[in-house]
């Protein structure tokens, strides 16, 4: 019985790791700024592509989960209407910006 549970746990962990290999997370909190619209843009030569957007909650918190192209490090901008934060995201990273 214990071997069966161990096997299932290993399979689940392996599946989860394989799914998150090409992903990165960006989260944080904008202190004193609730309901702010944030944009995540992918930067490539000659263009910026809007990937996702969100609105901060009542505490100023936000989160993005990004699927990276081919598991490569990629440049992104985290943008509000008046600020831009450049990011270099790699697979498996969790970047926290406050």
List keywords for this structure.
globular; four-stranded antiparallel β-sheet; three-stranded mixed β-sheet; disordered N terminus; alpha+beta; about 100 residues
Structural notes for this entry:
This protein is of the alpha+beta class. The chain has one helix and seven strands. It has a four-stranded antiparallel beta sheet, with no helix packed on it. It is globular, with a radius of gyration of 17 Å.
Widest sheet: strand ordering: 3-2-5-6
pLDDT under 50 segments (min length 5)?
1-18
Q: How would you classify the quaternary structure? A: single chain
Radius of gyration: 17 Å
- Output the number of helix runs: 1
Sheet of most strands? 4 strands, antiparallel
Average residue-wise pLDDT: 82
How much of the residues is beta strand, in percent?
A: over 45%
Q: In whole angstroms, how far apart are the ends? A: 46 Å
Helical content (DSSP H or I, runs of 4+): 10-25%
Which structural class should the secondary elements be placed in? alpha+beta
The ordered H/E elements are: HEEEEEEE
Tell how many strands the DSSP assignment holds: 7
In short:
The protein is 19% helix and 48% strand. With 98 residues, the protein is an alpha+beta fold.
